[in-house]
Amino acid sequence: MKRPIIHRAKYMFWDGISSMLAYTILYIYRRVRVEGYELSWSPELIEGAYFMGLFFITIFWITLFLVTGFYRDIYRRSRLKELVFTFNTTVMGSIFIFFALMLDDSISSISDYYRGFLVYFSAQFLISSLAHFLLSTRTHYRIKKGTIKFNTLLIGSNEKAVELYNEIGNRPKAGNHIVGFASVHNNIRFLVEKNLAHLGIHTQLASIITRNNIEEVIIAIESSEHEKLETIINILEDVNVKVKMIPDTYDIISGKVKLHSISSAPLIELNHELVPLWQRVVKRVFDILTSVFMLLLFSPILIFSAIMVKSTSKGPIFYRQKRMGLNGKEFSMIKFRSMYQDAEKHGPKLSSSTDSRITSWGRIMRKYRLDELPQFLNVIFGDMSIVGPRPERLHYVNLIKEKAPHYKHLQKVKPGITSWGMVKFGYAENVDEMVQRLKYDIIYIENMNLFNDFKILIYTVLIVLQGRGK
What we know:
This protein is α/β, with parallel strands linked by helices. It has helices spanning 2-34, 48-67, 79-102, 111-145, 159-168, 189-192, 205-211, 229-236, 249-253, 277-297, 299-312, 360-367, 375-381, 394-403, 420-424, 431-446, 450-466, and strands at 150-155, 176-183, 198-201, 216-219, 242-245, 268-269, 318-324, 330-336, 385-387, 416-418. Helix 10 (277-297) crosses helix 13 (375-381).
């Protein structure tokens, strides 16, 4: 979509200008205050290193705002939230610049450090926040004027849907352009009377959204229709739209309803970001560095395991198996072969603690999770993460979905070598146990953060050292 791309480009351009101006102010301050040059337009004031610093500083700030997710959802956030975001990012970036550029200055007093940092932080924050404020103010003005609209679909057709349409449909200043509604039952008279187009039923959501270029969906179903809610949410998981719904009294009391705008209706946003962009970047960097380190650290064990696999049974050392990964994409998971060759010649079959297909060395590897070590290669390739729900084969994914359709929530994140489900439950020996383990992985996904990843890693290490692998 051109609209957000062009708007992000404007933010990035002005962030580049802001970083150049702030760095120039810092550079002149250091040359005059620290190095003793006179404040003049003489060539001596500017060195060649200035232009190199100007280039890298500009790239640094644009990258920092990009990594922290500042350029995402630029149309729907308040100016106050944007100001706080700018302040926090500027503090973080200025501290990095301080240690990278200013800490090696020859100074006469420690207070020069504080002044230098204050000068740079103030310049960067004031200039960038002013640029952000002007851009966001113009955006809010265009939304209120109706120049920028978000195609919105209303799901529901009874009393709640009518009330919501009366509130939002008559408030174009919020940017929502309700193009029509999808009904859950056949009660469509109320909204049809208000000249709102009936676009189909809730089971046709995917095609309705694609056909009408829907950007936002609002679920306004009655309490008596809540049995349809899981179906609706599961369908919306596969489409790229912002999803909101009308809260009930319990949602309001439990604190799920957040006030985003004084002028808008109180709604719960369902498709919230699992983790901030910067955490995803840190997680990916951590995954790569840790995987390389683990492969080097355990290289003697890897070599020994490979020799034992080859010497204790016929067949290849490694076993590649198709598993379902992020967004339902298949990849080849790599493991040390722990079963006899052609163990699944009669079709897919889950293993158990008494499985006769497991080799003698394979049983030892499974107890200490040694067969999982080659999966660090999958992590480096980008198919897996170190911490994430365990990937399953398509055959078992389909069986699980028959009993638990919400399994598809697990495919919102990369699968992992270890997970909260593996820590709390261990290997599953049948589909029912997979469904039981599922609840732990859902809890993990809804509470994803780097701190929880580290906790899971610590528990995993303890399980491996104690040989409690199930």
